[in-house]
Recover the amino acids of this structure.
């Protein structure tokens, strides 16, 4: 018998969320225009955007609460928004099209696969991971996005002195990420080893953050620089 390939563990589950007619229309009209298609080899992102500019990746962009605001405020940057859930992608596409943004592209697939096959080494100036799924049950911890293997991969795609920003309202996972980040040989905790960072003033308050606060959860930010 041939070798059996293990199915990769995903950090998300594709749920059948409600999608509005407007979101469905946006997917039909704009996805091909603004989404980066899967590629067998790393992409030339300067060619994708038609210019040389800082490249910023948001993993789990949702409906684009951060990316849309950032792209409007910083037209000098190029933004990659990775999201797999169709309703969020639809809303993000609506925002891109209605504002005429040329500095956003959507990655509508698994972010780990995109980092492995599409994003070239030494490319990303900043990476944002805001409120990743905490997978609170111990048996599901293996599904958490941020682990040693993920950080090893991500740091190869970041430029030296690039920034990694993470926010979560799940304290146990925040402590885990802090331990992983502080022990990684290529990451430097800008708040100091063992310390969470102050909340960046520019980070918008997302619906996930608001929900966490309603549940009485404190929000923890982490900021790392690539050595």
């Amino acid at each position: 018998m041939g070798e059996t390939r293990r199915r990769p563990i995903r950090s998300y589950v594709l749920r059948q969320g409600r999608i509005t007619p407007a979101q469905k229309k946006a997917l039909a009209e704009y996805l091909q225009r603004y989404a980066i298609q899967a590629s067998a080899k790393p992409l030339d992102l300067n060619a994708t955007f038609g210019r040389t500019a800082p490249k910023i990746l948001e993993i789990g962009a949702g409906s684009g609460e951060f990316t849309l605001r950032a792209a409007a405020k910083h037209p000098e940057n190029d933004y990659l928004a990775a999201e797999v859930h169709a309703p969020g992608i639809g809303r993000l596409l609506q925002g891109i099209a209605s504002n005429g943004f040329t500095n956003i592209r959507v990655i509508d697939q698994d972010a780990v696969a995109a980092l492995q096959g599409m994003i070239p080494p030494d490319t990303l100036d900043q990476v944002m991971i805001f409120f990743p799924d905490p997978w609170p049950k111990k048996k599901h911890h293996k599904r958490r996005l941020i682990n040693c293997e993920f950080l090893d991969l991500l740091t190869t795609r970041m430029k030296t002195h690039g920034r990694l920003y993470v926010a979560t309202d799940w304290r146990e996972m925040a402590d885990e990420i802090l331990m992983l980040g502080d022990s990684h040989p290529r990451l430097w905790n800008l708040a100091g080893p063992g310390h969470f960072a102050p909340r960046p003033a520019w980070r918008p308050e997302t619906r996930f953050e608001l929900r966490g606060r309603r549940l009485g959860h404190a929000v923890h930010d982490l900021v790392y620089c690539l050595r």
About this structure: Residues 80 and 105 are 5 Å apart (CA to CA). Helices lie at 21-34, 45-49, 65-73, 86-99, 111-117, 148-157, 171-183, 207-214.
